């Protein structure tokens, strides 16, 4: 039980990588808040998992583009559970569009969820964790935080920002007992990739020397490590979990 007694918040926890991370933390004894959009799968997933895990899973509606909702998520979690020991700052959306056709609205939406949302959640987490004198924040970045890819200007800008913001937050937070890291997944088999056709998927698989897409549980395992005390000397890292995608590129 690597997370027994710990309280964890996972944004975007109703689907894909977030949901797998919720399940993994529950298996390891944590109490977990699924923080996701109102009206999505979060409520149902939390009810299903709560039944299986002795009341240790709850849902809180939170849109990471709304500062008031993010701050309320943390205040309510502290009021109910007493502390926030780890956060997976994971909510995010994709976005593929040739840059000359990319409108302000779509560009700004991706930035507001994938970059500004990470900032809002990290800021709220730091405020709570500084009072506690402990905690671990894990930001979800991407291989596209360190490499470019055609037609992903907003997404790559956001993820590159997440990688470097993580380093700054880690330096600030270390003296106060809080660790901040990022995970950089390769392409992972989740609903985020549903927009891609078979040819595109085969092309993406070919970019991973391991010869397949990643599984959500493989990112969840990396989150679990960084969230837990096993990573007590790890801060400011961008842990690439990418089936070798980046190995030949650096
Ligand atoms: P996913 O299955 O689509 O899950 C994302 C979750 O975030 C969904 O539950 C979604 O809700 C939620 N969400 C979207 N906008 C939100 C908002 N404003 N506030 C709160 N929650 C919001 O995608 P995933 O693949 O697991 O992605 C999780 C993270 O991994 C993202 O940050 C993504 O960029 C990153 N990542 C994914 C891959 C990949 O290949 N899958 C690779 C690298 C990095 P709805 O479903 O209701 O919209």
Automatic annotation (TrEMBL):
<protein>
    <submittedName>
        <fullName>NAD(P)-dependent dehydrogenase (Short-subunit alcohol dehydrogenase family)</fullName>
    </submittedName>
</protein>
<dbReference type="InterPro" id="IPR020904">
    <property type="entry name" value="Sc_DH/Rdtase_CS"/>
</dbReference>
<dbReference type="InterPro" id="IPR002347">
    <property type="entry name" value="SDR_fam"/>
</dbReference>
<dbReference type="Pfam" id="PF13561">
    <property type="entry name" value="adh_short_C2"/>
</dbReference>
<comment type="similarity">
    <text>Belongs to the short-chain dehydrogenases/reductases (SDR) family.</text>
</comment>
<keyword id="KW-0560">Oxidoreductase</keyword>
<dbReference type="InterPro" id="IPR036291">
    <property type="entry name" value="NAD(P)-bd_dom_sf"/>
</dbReference>
<dbReference type="GO" id="GO:0016491">
    <property type="term" value="F:oxidoreductase activity"/>
</dbReference>
């Amino acid at each position: 039980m690597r997370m027994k007694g710990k309280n964890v918040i996972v944004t975007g926890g109703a689907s894909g990588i977030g949901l797998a991370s919720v399940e993994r933390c529950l298996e390891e004894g944590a109490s977990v808040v699924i923080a996701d959009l109102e009206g999505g799968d979060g409520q149902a997933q939390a009810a299903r998992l709560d039944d299986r895990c002795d009341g240790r899973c709850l849902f809180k509606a939170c849109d990471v583009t709304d500062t008031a909702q993010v701050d309320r998520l943390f205040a309510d979690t502290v009021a109910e559970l007493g502390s926030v020991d780890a956060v997976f700052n994971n909510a995010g959306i994709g976005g593929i569009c040739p840059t000359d056709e990319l409108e302000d609205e779509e560009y700004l939406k991706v930035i507001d969820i994938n970059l500004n949302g990470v900032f809002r959640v990290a800021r709220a987490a730091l405020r709570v964790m500084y009072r506690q004198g402990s905690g671990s924040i894990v930001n979800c970045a991407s291989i596209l935080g360190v490499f470019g890819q055609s037609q992903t200007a907003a997404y790559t800008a956001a993820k590159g920002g997440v990688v470097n913001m993580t380093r700054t937050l880690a330096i600030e937070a270390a003296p106060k007992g809080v660790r901040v890291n990022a995970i950089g997944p390769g392409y992972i088999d989740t609903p985020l990739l549903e927009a891609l056709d078979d040819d595109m998927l085969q092309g993406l698989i070919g970019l991973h020397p391991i010869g397949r897409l990643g599984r959500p549980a493989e990112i969840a395992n990396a989150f679990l490590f960084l969230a837990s005390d096993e990573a007590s000397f790890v801060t400011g890292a961008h842990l690439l979990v990418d089936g070798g995608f980046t190995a030949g590129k650096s």
